[in-house]
Amino acid sequence: MKSEISRKEEIQITAAKLFTEKGYNAVSMRDLALALGIKASSLYNHIQSKQEILSLIIITVGEHFTEGILEIINSESGPLEKLKQTIKLHVHISLHYKDAIGCLNSNWHNLEEPDLANLKKMREDYEENVRLLIRACKKDKQLKSLNEEVMLYSVLSTLRSVYQWSNKTEGLNEEELVAELQESLLEGLVEN
Amino acid sequence: MKSEISRKEEIQITAAKLFTEKGYNAVSMRDLALALGIKASSLYNHIQSKQEILSLIIITVGEHFTEGILEIINSESGPLEKLKQTIKLHVHISLHYKDAIGCLNSNWHNLEEPDLANLKKMREDYEENVRLLIRACKKDKQLKSLNEEVMLYSVLSTLRSVYQWSNKTEGLNEEELVAELQESLLEGLVEN
DNA sequence: GTCTATAAAATGATAGAC
DNA sequence: GTCTATCATTTTATAGAC
């Protein structure tokens, strides 16, 4: 009854790890094949090209973010609660798709068209949604009247790096990490 | 009287830009030479290898961070003021060495030994210094008793991304950007 | 200091046997 | 589905003329 994992998925999982560690161009099809215990030419029975592997990894995780943020935006909560939900969403994806996110972060510029344009659109839309949330919070006097872009990227850049350092906070479970980040990012570090 | 810029420096400046945009492995010596208006073989009159170019770019900017943080640590200020000075330092370097920092961030894993080990040591020491600052602030009750690693990477990951988005805050000069970041990161975004 | 020519190695991908 | 063998291309780097 357990869901079988196809060779194609196996390739994506291994590739995501290697691409994250060494970079897309630094990983040859021979390297990837060796990590899977087969020959490079055998890979082409499952995928069409090296580029297709990268595309599958990155677009899939990009869609997770897109779906997640839309669900939050369309919910009934207030803007500050939605911002907190965005932090939760980002942590959740970061912990469950670590390698794919690492691959996205390090290798998105190796995507070719039309996937590159597709990803850029998804990323811009995501950023714009968070920007609008921040603006709505400011209007409601729930956030300070600081520069919007500084606030936006303070939050986003921290969230985007979670996959890199979450292994250093292993005393915290997912829920606790979310709570700590919500507090740190929104309420600040300084004791009042 | 103006300081002459050598061809070797010109190569580093152009390479830093290209490496940041496309990635180290995606930029061939032909690409780099073309951007400089010469042939690839001519590059070797000024540098020994492609790897040397990367090393010069990254190690140089790494040393700026190392020198800067040591100056702060050895100053007479209290820990919270030192943390604020670290934010100022990071912004200053981010604005003045944008391409080199981009190159460091995207391509450090393409460094070969012993430069890679050298850079990792610099990075770890830098992180440890900021961690100790945060710990000292907590002990003084100037920072909340949140998870140290979460606080550390909230601050560091935002600072490390400044070069990517500082062009979107062009209404702010350097001093103002520093002030906004000190407020956002330390005091938080939420209105009390 | 730049050029042309070229070496030596690595790369993504295909053909065809099993 | 995997293999061996191979191709076409690109890569970093060197040698030597100007």
Explained architecture:
Chain A is an all-alpha fold. Chain A contains ten helices and no strands. Chain A has helices at 7-22, 29-36, 40-43, 50-73, 79-96, 98-107, 115-139, 148-160, 162-165, 174-187. In chain A, 36% of the residues are buried. Chains A and B meet through helix 8 and helix 10 of A and helix 8 and helix 10 of B. The structure holds a DNA duplex (18 and 18 nucleotides).
Brief rundown of the structure:
The structure is a homodimer of 192-residue chains. With 192 residues, chain A is mainly alpha-helical. Chain A is built from 10 helices and no strands.
Major β-sheet of chain A, in short? none
What series of H and E elements makes up the topology of chain A?
Answer: HHHHHHHHHH
Oligomer: homodimer
Task: Report the C-alpha radius of gyration of chain A, rounded.
Answer: 19 Å
Distance between the termini of chain A: 54 Å
Helices and strands of chain A: which structural class? mainly alpha
Q: Which outline of chain A best applies?
A: elongated
Which keywords apply here?
0% strand, mainly alpha, DNA-binding, homodimer, 192 residues
Topology:
The structure is a homodimer of 192-residue chains.
Chain A lengths: L6 H16 L6 H8 L3 H4 L6 H24 L5 H18 L1 H10 L7 H25 L8 H13 L1 H4 L8 H14 L5
Helix pairs in contact in A: 1-4, 1-6, 4-5, 4-6, 4-7, 5-7, 5-10, 7-8
The structure holds a DNA duplex (18 and 18 nucleotides).
